[in-house]
Write a structure and sequence with these properties.
This protein has 809 residues and is of the alpha+beta class. Helix content is 28%, strand content 23%. It is built from 23 helices and 31 strands.
Length: 809
């Protein structure tokens, strides 16, 4: 894929930085890679004392509520708010025709990008609703949420109902109603996305590949609408202090909040303080729904400014039920393969709804398939925005595994062998990758082979696998074994800054802001800082949700550790060097002789272990870190100046660095039993194997495997939004009728960690966040296909679809 000039400029100074090139690499680890490390957030969360955004309370606080459209597409013809304004306890009513917000869309650089196809355009409390449940028309600030809700019921609105369309393929028909006439008056065709993946991706010559194949396989795959909302519905709280704005938000991008509010209110970014308390598992969602989230911050801040009081906006679960995960799609496949499982050509045409991300990256990034054609068409429909949540590029991963599953089944081959036969990158084989590893100092290990061998042993693959539809159990059920694989991804992007502060008592603060989404990042970064400084882990603290002016890379799945790990590591090394220089430098005292902690030695002669500085050639000569820092401070005429170092770091962009290849793989296995009479699927066991390069926190890696697999099962087995085709209204906007999986639905899960050191993160680490949740979502399809001998490529795979595939309904 050819990079744009701006991307080349962005990444031209990004060297490949594998572990073995680090001349300052640690010789041994004290906490990195160790189990049983106490989580920094453990007590607060386990005790129920952790404060989430919805928990924050301020004196005199008001509550805000916004009207949500009852129609899939409708405009406000007239609105009478007089009853609501007079209702006792109502403090302010903000209308869509208010001069400050009337017809105003999102603003700023990011908004311009989104208008070119990165997301749904959105009006700040607009006068037209483009999907049912869209926040629109009016917002109320009142003494309580109940009063605000009642005030909304008192508003008299005359609506003009407009035609709507829900299905993306129907939306592209000439006779379809126009879903977004405000931005595309003549067509529902979504504009091309110039900022990410090309809408047409070509590699090699697919027609040539088909001519060379022994078999051509054609099929269709679908992923139905499913929710992106996380466990904690969105909320925010705004308060003005003079011309300074303080806001608490349920969001993963605190600096983005500052940027957008600065642009809206025309105040310096420095006058905005953003706090992101513990996040209740956002998993993307509102993080990427920038236009929608932006409107909520703006509305809340406007109400706070006009009332002179803090204002809090909290969505209910039903109010948040409208966004969808990005992989809503229908794909048409044509695949050519040789009889030995070598895939010669892949041709895919995909149609998506209200979504930005799409691509064939996984076929190019980690296969030797020479000929690829991927064309994606996107359509506007009258549903909520579709963005990444509990996933990233699901279209990539579902399409990828459907291809491998169908090839293996059609040729009656073991799918693990088909995977190994086609492993590679950009149409090149494993010999090319082996040479690449040697040239760049990576270990020459076969990541996929190691993952497959570990997974096969754990699930008993060699004893249990069989060709599709060939094993009926004594209980009458059909037995199936499923397999899915791809690379680990997204370890090569991000930017941020942070500091390391060593206090006079020898304790250490990591200074940086980053939203907490439950993935134990603070503990992991503290492990890195502890080992790099030579400090005890218990001496390190990190309160990352506080606004301290140093912005780490935001909570973006698998890229975080591989970017922020470098940042905190660099800062720790810089702080250590500064500390050792202080320990060997004469320190002037008023009226006294200078003090030298380690006379006759240079900084390079010293090291630190267990928070004690010592001489390398004579470890009996020691001083604690606290002694050095304390004396250094006291000599500065009483000034308390702890040792501090900070860094800024950029870690590429979306893996686009020239010459980089993804080297770490993941493999997932599932055993199922399918009842051919009822269509019910019972998951007997799941094995997740991830090559994370280096597991800095093994329990955190396993948490990603467990949590990701749980999410993947829910999405593939039961989660689906149901719409009324006559009204466009969502029929299951609650957690009773929307079937989130439970742990009882997942079967036993066995996580396995492989560490090849072939990641681009610190210590050879590779990201795992979002990988399992996204990629293993197609695993159930492979297992069911193997069980019943017929593919069910329409996700979620429900009992009725199984029975239909078997010809029983």
């Amino acid at each position: 894929m050819k990079m744009r000039k701006m991307d080349q400029e962005f990444v031209k100074d990004m060297p490949i930085e594998p572990m073995v090139r680090d001349k300052y690499a640690l010789k041994e680890f004290n906490t990195i890679g160790k189990r049983g490390i106490r989580r920094l957030d453990g007590y607060e969360k386990a005790s129920g004392k952790a404060i989430f955004c919805r928990d924050v309370q301020l004196p005199g606080m008001l509550y805000a509520k916004i009207l949500h459209s009852p129609y899939a597409h409708a405009g406000i013809k007239s609105m009478n708010t007089s009853k609501a304004e007079k209702f006792p306890g109502v403090r302010y009513v903000l209308r869509y025709d208010d001069p400050e917000i009337e017809k105003r869309k999102e603003i700023g650089i990011e908004a311009k990008r989104r208008w070119f196809g990165w997301g749904m355009p959105y009006y700040i409390l607009g006068g037209t609703a483009y999907w049912q449940n869209e926040p629109v028309g009016i917002a109320v600030a009142a003494d309580s949420e109940d009063i605000a809700r009642e005030a909304l019921r008192l508003v008299d609105i005359e609506w003009e109902e407009l035609p709507f369309v829900l299905d993306q393929e129907e939306a592209l028909m000439p006779s379809a109603p126009i879903a977004r006439p405000d931005v595309s008056p003549d067509t529902n065709l979504w504009p091309p996305d110039p900022f990410k993946i090309p809408e047409v991706r070509q590699q090699g010559d697919v027609e040539k590949g088909f001519a060379e194949s022994d078999k051509i396989i054609e099929f269709t795959g679908r992923r139905r609408d499913h929710l992106w909302a996380g466990p904690e519905p969105v909320s925010c709280l705004a308060e003005w202090k003079g011309d300074n704005l303080e806001i608490w938000v349920h969001h993963q991008h605190p600096y983005d909040v500052k940027l957008r509010l600065s642009e809206w209110f025309n105040i310096p970014i420095s006058k905005i303080k953003v706090t992101t308390p513990y996040q209740g598992g956002m998993f993307g969602g509102w993080n990427w729904m920038v236009a929608m989230a932006h409107s909520l911050w703006v509305i809340t801040a406007i109400l706070a400014k006009r009332t002179g009081k803090p204002v809090k906006l909290r969505y209910s679960r039903k109010e948040e039920f409208y966004g969808e995960s990005e992989d809503i799609m229908v794909s048409y496949f044509e695949v050519g393969a040789k009889n030995d499982g070598t895939i010669t050509a892949v041709k895919i045409k995909t149609v998506q709804a209200n979504v930005s991300f799409a691509g064939a990256d996984h076929f190019a990034d980690n296969t030797r398939i020479p000929n690829i054609s991927f064309v994606v068409t996107k359509a506007y429909v009258n549903k909520g925005d579709s963005w990444s949540c509990r996933c990233e590029h699901n279209v990539n991963t579902i399409n990828f595994n459907l291809v491998f599953d169908h090839v293996a089944a059609a040729l009656r081959l073991d799918p693990t062998e088909v995977a190994l036969k086609n492993d590679g990158c950009e149409g090149k084989d494993m010999n090319y990758l082996a040479e690449f590893k040697r040239e760049h100092g990576f270990p020459d290990r076969d990541s996929l082979k190691e993952c497959i061998e570990a997974g096969k042993k754990a699930i008993g693959w060699d004893e249990k696998w069989h060709p599709p539809g060939m094993k009926r159990l004594p209980n009458g059920k059909m037995h199936g074994m499923g397999f899915a694989w791809t690379h680990e991804w997204d370890s090569a992007r991000g930017a941020g800054c942070a500091g390391v502060l060593i206090h006079r008592d020898g304790s250490v603060d990591i200074i940086g802001q980053k939203s907490d989404i439950g993935v134990n990042h603070d503990t992991t970064y503290a492990q890195i800082v502890a080992d790099e400084l030579g400090m005890r882990y218990e001496d390190i603290n990190f309160r990352s949700f506080n606004d301290v002016g140093f912005e780490l890379m935001t909570a973006d799945g698998s890229a975080n550790l591989c970017c922020n790990g470098y940042i905190v590591r660099k800062a720790a090394r810089k702080a250590k060097q500064r500390l050792l220089e202080l320990a060997t430098t004469p320190i002037l005292q008023l009226g006294e002789l200078p003090i030298v902690h380690f006379p006759g030695y240079k900084a390079e002669d010293l090291d630190i272990k267990d928070s004690v500085i010592y001489v390398k050639i004579d470890p009996s000569k020691t001083k604690t870190v606290a002694e050095v820092v304390k004396i250094t401070e006291l000599t500065e005429v009483g000034m308390q100046q702890p040792v501090f170092a900070w860094v800024w770091h950029r870690q590429g962009k979306f893996g686009l660095e020239p010459g980089r290849h993804r080297l770490c793989r993941q493999a997932h296995f599932m055993e199922v039993e399918v009842d051919p009479e009822t269509g019910e699927i019972e998951i007997k066991k799941v094995v997740n194997v991830n090559d994370v390069g280096k597991a800095i926190s093994p329990e955190t890696v396993e948490g990603q495997q467990y949590g990701g697999m749980y999410m993947a099962v829910g999405r593939s087995r039961s989660e689906e939004i149901v719409w009324d085709p006559r009204t466009g209204v969502m029929l299951n906007s609650n957690l009773l009728d929307y079937k989130i999986a439970t742990m009882l639905d997942c079967g036993p899960i066995e996580p396995i960690i492989v560490e090849t050191g072939m990641g681009y993160g610190p210590y050879g680490a590779e990201g795992i966040g979002e990988n399992v949740a996204c990629h293993a979502a197609s695993l159930l399809g492979s297992a069911v296909h193997n069980a019943i001998g017929v593919a069910v490529d329409d996700f979620p795979i429900t009992p009725d679809k199984v029975l239909k595939a078997l010809g029983k309904i």
